[in-house]
Amino acid sequence: MNVEAANEKELLLQKRSLTFLYGKNVPPLPLEEERKVFPHRHTNIISRALFYYLNPMLRVGYKRTLQPQDMYVLDERDSVDAMYDKFRNYLDVELDKARAKHIQKKREARAELGNTSTVDEDTDLEDFELPYIVIVKGLFHLFGWQYMWGSLLKVFTDLFYTLMPLVQKRLVNFVEESAYGFHPTLGKGVGYSIGVGLMVYFAGLCVNHFVYNSITVGAKCKAVLTKLLLEKSFRLDARGKHKFPVGKINSIMGTDLTRVDLAIGFFPIIFEFPFSIILCIILLLVNIGVSALAGISLFVVILLFTSYVVRVLYKMRVRANVYTDQRVNLVKELLKNFKMVKMYGWENSYFKQFVDTRQKEMTIVLRMQHIRNFLDALSFWLPIITSMVSFLVLYHLRNNRTVGDIFSSLTLFQELTGQFAMVTPSLSMATDMVVGFKRVAQLISCPDAPALEEFHDLLDDEKLALKLAHASFKWHTFEESATTEVVIVPESKTSSSKDASRTEFPGLHDLTLSISRGEFIVVTGAIGSGKSSLLSAISGFMPKTGGSVAKNGSLLLCGYPWVQNATVRENILFGQPFDQTKYDEIVRVCSLDTDFELFSAGDMTEVGERGITLSGGQKARINLARAVYSDRDIILLDDVLSAVDAKVGKHIMEQCILGYLKGKTRILATHQLSLINAADKVIFLNGNGSIDYGTLHEVRSRNSAFIRLMEFSHDPEEEQRPDEADEKKEDELKAEKEEDGKLMRDEERAVNSISKNVYSTYILSGSGKLGYLFPILILFACAVSTFSDLFTNNWLSFWQDKKFRKPPGFYQGIYILLGFSTLLLLTFYFALIVQFCNKAANQFNTSAFQNLLHAPMSFIDTTPMGRVLNRFTKDSDVLDNEIQSQFRMFIQEFSVVVGTLILCIIYLPWFAIAIPVMIVAYYLIANFYLASSREIKRLEAVKRSEVYSHFNEALSGLDTIKAHSSSERFMETNSRLIDQMNESYFTFVAVQRWLACNLDIMVSFMCLFICLLCSFRIFHIRGAYAGLLLTCVFNIVGMLSYMLRAMTEIENQMNSVERLKFYAVDLEQEAPFDIPERNPSPLWPQRGAICFSNVTMSYREGLPPAVRNLSLDVAGGEKIGVCGRTGAGKSSVMYSLFRLAEFDGRITIDDVDISKIGLHKLRTSLSIIPQDPVLFSGNIRSNLDPFQEHSDDNLWDALSKAGLVETDALDLVKHQTKSDRNLHKFHLARLVEDDGSNFSLGERQLLALARALVRGSKILVLDEATSSVDYETDAKVQKTITNEFADCTVLCIAHRLKTIVKYDRIMVLDKGEIVELGKPIELYQHDGIFRSMCEKSGITRADFDI
């Protein structure tokens, strides 16, 4: 595809101030091979020093909006792979040393000598934690030379700024002598003036290259650590996964590494601080003698106080991180279970939980910001108070000094304080950096799971494919103790008493079996007996505690159907070379060819994040096709047929498993016992950790439990599932997608300047009831504090010049008053900014989450999870921590610059001539810079989102990726995305330095101009006022560039505000959530009668109807079975009932029009048991009753009725405690891992049933609710539904037709319309769709008898 054509609509000539100078032609997009390597290492010394190699790109950016293709390609040495290989080599060596040292300490503690030990190494390493300094050393080993070069440049910068007051002293004394008529040589004054100009320029040049080098090193460190996190995530063992769930790893990557990146850029300031301090002290002692020690002593006291406060800030940051992780986990959990949260009406409860967590987080953050800003106010005030103390002592010592001594000393105190002002935030950022490094080190310290490649022994018998010899396996389970330490729960023993007969899964013990090459093995057993665990054990995913597992050939586990956000073809190929013939055949045998016809772009259709556009059956078949395409010798299939109908299942069995895969060793775990006749052998899980292995006849002849399970089975054709595809998604795919199959929305990216509406929304969010008065109050406080600051030094010049002929006490009193007033005003002004930004951040974040909760399903379907998480991690962190410091810096510096320029005009009116020239030059440089910088920053933000999305996607599919040996491929993709992000980021950093270099030239000329005016004594300026002006001008030397950078940084950070505003203000919303005035009776619905009247529903405006003119009356308590062919509209009817999509027509429940009431009232009055059960991390109690709305007795009752806790053991189970070794598997306190991964799919389904029982709604919807349970459990579930929901209205989308043939009525849908409706026996007797489905399923007339 032509890149230029794809972006043609964006390649427009932009109208800017200087566009007329560059012609009207629009620069084309470069082709990939035309892109240039980042020039910094490949250009001449002048261009590198001044960053002029960026001029060609900046000219392009001035004429049109920059695109990703315009960015420079990274130098190979800066690619993340090249850097990571070197870092990893160093880290591995240091990691081995640290582990050996830790083990040695353990041995010494046990008084063991030599290398002998009574404890194995793994046990000794359980509490091992890598010192974070090892990671720091590794990064320094990698980037040390570049970092030290940048640090050396910082030393030169400080040297220039510290020696500048010496030249100022000579110049002031020169002016003072001229004022007294001594007429020194004018050449000296000109020389001093030129010297000042050159020192200002070279100081700026050095600081620019220091910043460039240190910040790029920070970005490189972040890139390396990001790859380290992902690589470690692929290797984490069970304990590590428990300690670092996906949400926490995301938080480390999104928040902690960002802080590490920022802190590394400023860290050299901390260890170079003493050099500047010592030099300043020496010069102060030379200037004003021992009186300088008074100010320096005060300086040291305040520095010690600051050090103490920084330690407090460190502890506060650690506490805040706990709540940050909780908040990010809440968002991630919501995104993963969005549909479930909506159907259960949990939005308010989720929001309350989020607000509580956010409030705790922001309370700490607010305190931290107030403390930080007080330290900043203190640092701004330091030159005033330290110089004041020194000058007062100097006066009382009667030690006469020249005007040059006084004002050069004042400049030195400012330099001293400037260093201190940079140290304070640098120390604060360093504390955040240490926290980040420690969290990374804790993750790296976790043990690695055994590599799958090393798990199996080699099998020398060519006739065998697999051999297990006395193999035992055990899942690690974890509980949180009172001290929040993670401990392994001891292995449960099978209880001989009835007190806890269903404890946690006992594991698999002493398994011995041999499987021949090419055999087809069926694994079966009761729910929770360990079918999936056995496959995980054979494939190496379940920890082995004894025995051996040997294999002959390659092996693959086809487990939970995970799909990535890519096209269908890419999901099937999964990195394998494309073979058209092989691919087409696999698509056919996996019954995917008909699905491709439903997709507008066929197999090139994007499936969406988490396969959101696919039905369970489609995901299962894509997952199967991927496994088949991988062409392994041994394929383990975990219940791959549970989500497909009988017809498709039969096709897959015959054409794929028994056909295409014939000759390969196939092991299929299933509860569909009707398939068992095709098996060569059967593995039956007894439920106590043992198995029964043999032919069907052998197992049937000796195992009574197997016989009992077989009684519930029937022929596969008896379970024709009318619909294995979610027609909602199919209908959407047909009408919603573009011709190229693209589904996911492009990330919202503004171009050119930030909208004024974004600024106004932000201002009003932070101002509260004061509205626009609040920023006016901030500006007024800033103006008053700046006046007080400048006038304090101005008053010093009055004192030196004895302007008012008053006694010394008069000058000293007002000097002291002005000095302390400045501190109070600065503190007040900074506090206002903190309050404003904190309130805005809280408002944006909370509103964004609230709007996300009420966004329509279509938004989540088409938006990558990583993009949303980016809003609540990086973007939220910008609003929480970064933007307020930039606001404060910009406003403060702007006011000081304006005040200084006014002061210059007052004393040197001719300087006003230069002001317009400076303003025009400043504007043109800024205009040229902003045109490109804002777009480069936005590109970096978009690329960062892609890194986050891929990182999160990889974490969610770890097992599938590892099973397919694709870890390396995903790491390569991650590296490529990081490199693309750094292409924009490195360019952005360099563009900032380009700006600073150009502004430094302007500032140098301004200093030269003022110095020359003083030297020539224009307007007969006296030495005291010349000293004042030079002190003030030196103070703003760096401020012009910092001010513009702060302004552009604000605009760049306003991108985060802009993106959060989209969620907080502009995000599309569902219908009103609560309409209290329209709420029906609190007891509604009492009968559960439902009436559909001419209901027509489309998923969004412009899409074809998924339900057409549907009319149906359902009596209260009636049981309705819903069936129909694929795409018939069954799930769409349920969507309409829950108003997940709005409709035309009318639906009433107990005569209440559901379109007139709030969504919350409607959804909380219904219950649903979905096909894919959702469990949240926490425990059983929190999953049944997430928001503590029911008593424990109700929860225990629901567990009992769902068959999870035996009725006769209920009282004993209730009295168990978390520490009980024999804790029941479904005890309310039992831990639930992320996604319920410590429970089987069937068990999760039963927990979903228990949740519905707790809810106790009058209307129950079953959406293929027993798709993942065996027949015996299915029968129990149906019995529970019959008994417990006897007086409830039930709408059941059929999974197995036999389960609905005894319902009151059957509704058959086709193309969104009712084509058949009536009693089951009547429809059966009628020659129609239902009859044909029954015949295909083997259902006879006898099955309808009660």
The computed structural class is alpha/beta
- Classify the beta-strand content into a percent band: 5-15%
Widest sheet, order of strands: 8-9-10-6-11-12
Average pLDDT level: 82
Radius of gyration: 36 Å
User: Count of DSSP helices?
Assistant: 43
Major sheet size, sense and barrel closure:
6 strands, mixed
Question: Stretches where pLDDT falls below 50 for ≥5 residues?
Answer: 1-9, 480-502, 714-741
What is the overall silhouette?
Answer: elongated
Distance between the amino and carboxyl termini: 63 Å
Helix content: 55-70%
Strand segment count: 24
Write the layout of secondary structure elements.
Blueprint: H1 3-6, H2 45-50, H3 55-63, H4 80-109, H5 121-124, H6 132-179, H7 186-235, H8 238-243, H9 246-266, H10 268-288, H11 292-336, H12 338-343, H13 347-396, H14 403-445, H15 452-455, E1 457-458, E2 464-473, E3 478-480, E4 486-488, E5 508-516, E6 520-525, H16 531-539, E7 544-551, E8 555-558, H17 568-573, H18 580-589, H19 593-598, H20 616-629, E9 634-638, H21 646-660, E10 665-669, E11 681-685, E12 691-694, H22 696-702, H23 704-710, H24 727-736, H25 756-767, H26 773-801, H27 808-853, H28 857-861, H29 865-907, H30 914-956, H31 958-963, H32 967-1015, H33 1023-1035, H34 1039-1066, E13 1090-1097, E14 1107-1114, E15 1119-1124, H35 1130-1138, E16 1143-1149, E17 1152-1153, H36 1159-1163, E18 1166-1169, E19 1178-1179, H37 1180-1184, H38 1192-1201, H39 1210-1214, E20 1231-1232, H40 1241-1255, E21 1259-1263, H41 1271-1284, E22 1289-1293, E23 1305-1310, E24 1313-1318, H42 1320-1325, H43 1329-1336
Helix pairs in contact: 3-30, 4-6, 4-7, 6-7, 6-10, 6-14, 6-33, 7-9, 7-32, 9-11, 9-14, 9-29, 9-30, 10-14, 11-13, 11-14, 11-29, 13-14, 13-27, 14-33, 25-27, 25-34, 26-27, 26-29, 26-33, 27-29, 27-34, 29-30, 29-33, 29-34, 30-32, 30-34, 32-33, 32-34, 38-40
